[in-house]
UniProtKB/TrEMBL annotation:
GO molecular function ontology, one term from the record: oxidoreductase activity
Coiled coil: none
Protein name, per record: Aldo/keto reductase
One GO location term (cellular component): cytosol
Xref: Gene3D superfamilies: NADP-dependent oxidoreductase domain
Superkingdom classification of source: Bacteria
Pfam families (UniProt xref): Aldo_ket_red
Length: 336
C-alpha cells in the first residue's frame, strides 16, 4: 500500500480507501461486509469512508462492528453529514448546527469510536448560512469529535468560501470528495486548481464509473446479475448516464491498454485517477473480498504518458468535462 498526505495537512491516508456506499447494510449481508473490511485491512488499507445516510445509518453500524478490536490509532475513519436520516423529520437533513451536532454523536455511537479522523459535509446546504455550518464544524473539532473537516461535491467557489471561513475559525478545510474517473472529469478545470491553491486534497469516489470501466457491461448484452446496473435501490440510476452503446464500445477498446500494463480494467481505472497529484485517495467498494484484493493492486502504479494519451484518444468525446456539472447535479434545496 502507498500513503499520501490529505491536502496540505499532516494526515496520511491509504491511497486506496475503502468505501461502503451502496453495499454495507443494503446490497450485501453483514458477514460478507465484514469479510470485505478484513480483506481491506489485510492488504494494507487503513482508511475507511462511510456516511450516516448510507443504508439510513446501517452502513456506519456495519463498519463499526467490522472494525471492532482494531487499534484505533492505526485507522483513519471518515464519515459525512447532510442527507436525510432517521425518521426524516424537518431537521433531520442539511448542515444546520442542530443537525450537525446531533449527527456527529449518532455517527460516533454507530462507529463505536470517540472521534472520526475526517468529518465531511456531504453536499452544500443552500438553506443554511455557511457561517453557521462552519462554526458547528469548528466546535466539533475543538471538542475532539473530529480531527479534520472536509466536503463532498462542492464547487470551486463554495470551496473557496468554506476554506476562508475555516481559517477565520481556527481550522482548515482539507479535503474534497467528488466523483472522478476517466469518464467523469468535471473537477479538472476549476475544483482541482482551486484545491491546489488552498491545500485541499481530493478523495475521489466512483473511479471505475460505477463499474462501467471494468468492462463487464457489453453492447447488446444484459447486465450481469447482481451488478450495479441491475440494482433498483439506487445503483441503476447512478450508472444510467454511462449505459449507452457509444460509451460501452469505447470502454472495450481500453482492454488492450490495460493488458499492456499487466492490469485489469478496474485496476487501470483506479490507477488512472491516482495519476492526478491532487488526488489523495481513490475510494473503492466491494461486495466480495476478492474485489478488494484485486483493486488494491492499483496502488503505486505509474501509467506511462503514452498510455495516458491513448486512453484520452479512445474515450474521446464520451468524457464529461463540463465543470458546471458539479452544481447541476447538486441539490438546489434540502431534500424532503
Amino acid at each position: 500500500m502507498e500513503f499520501r498526505y490529505l491536502g496540505s495537512s499532516g494526515l496520511k491516508i491509504s491511497e486506496i480507501t475503502y468505501g461502503n456506499w451502496l453495499t454495507h447494510g443494503s446490497q450485501v449481508e453483514n458477514d460478507i461486509a465484514t469479510q470485505c473490511v478484513h480483506a481491506a485491512l489485510d492488504v494494507g488499507i487503513t482508511s475507511f469512508d462511510t456516511a450516516d445516510v448510507y443504508a439510513n445509518t446501517k452502513a456506519e453500524s456495519v463498519l463499526g462492528d467490522a472494525l471492532k478490536g482494531q487499534r484505533r490509532e492505526s485507522l483513519e475513519i471518515f464519515t459525512k453529514v447532510y442527507w436525510p436520516t432517521g425518521p426524516r423529520g424537518h431537521n433531520d437533513v442539511g448542515l444546520s448546527r442542530k443537525h450537525i451536532m446531533e449527527s456527529i454523536d449518532g455517527s460516533l455511537t454507530r462507529l463505536q469510536t470517540d472521534y472520526v479522523d475526517l468529518y465531511q459535509a456531504h453536499r452544500f446546504d443552500t438553506e443554511t448560512p455557511l457561517e453557521e455550518t462552519m462554526q458547528a464544524f469548528a466546535d466539533i473539532v475543538r471538542q475532539g469529535k473530529a480531527l479534520y473537516i472536509g466536503v463532498s461535491e462542492w464547487t470551486a467557489a463554495q470551496l473557496r468560501a468554506g476554506h476562508a471561513l475555516s481559517k477565520e475559525l481556527g481550522f482548515n478545510l482539507i479535503s474534497s470528495q467528488p466523483q472522478y474517473s476517466m469518464l467523469w472529469r468535471v473537477i479538472e478545470d476549476e475544483v482541482v486548481p482551486t484545491s491546489r491553491e488552498l491545500g485541499i486534497g481530493q478523495i475521489v469516489w466512483s473511479p471505475v464509473a460505477q463499474g462501467v470501466l471494468t468492462g463487464k457491461y457489453k453492447v447488446g448484452q444484459t447486465p450481469p446479475a447482481g451488478s450495479r446496473a441491475t440494482d433498483l435501490k439506487g445503483g441503476a440510476d447512478m450508472i444510467s448516464r454511462f449505459m449507452n452503446d457509444d460509451v460501452l464500445t469505447r470502454v472495450q477498446k481500453l482492454e488492450p491498454i490495460a493488458a499492456d500494463l499487466n492490469l485489469s480494467m478496474a485496476q487501470l481505472a483506479v490507477a488512472w485517477v491516482l495519476q492526478n497529484d491532487n488526488v489523495s485517495a481513490a475510494l473503492v467498494g466491494a461486495s466480495r473480498p476478492e474485489q478488494v484484493r484485486e483493486n488494491v493492486k492499483a496502488a503505486g502504479v505509474k501509467i506511462p504518458a503514452e498510455s495516458m494519451k491513448q486512453i484520452d484518444e479512445v474515450l474521446g468525446d464520451a468524457v464529461e468535462h463540463d465543470s458546471a456539472m458539479t452544481s447541476a447535479t447538486a441539490p438546489q434545496s434540502r431534500p424532503a
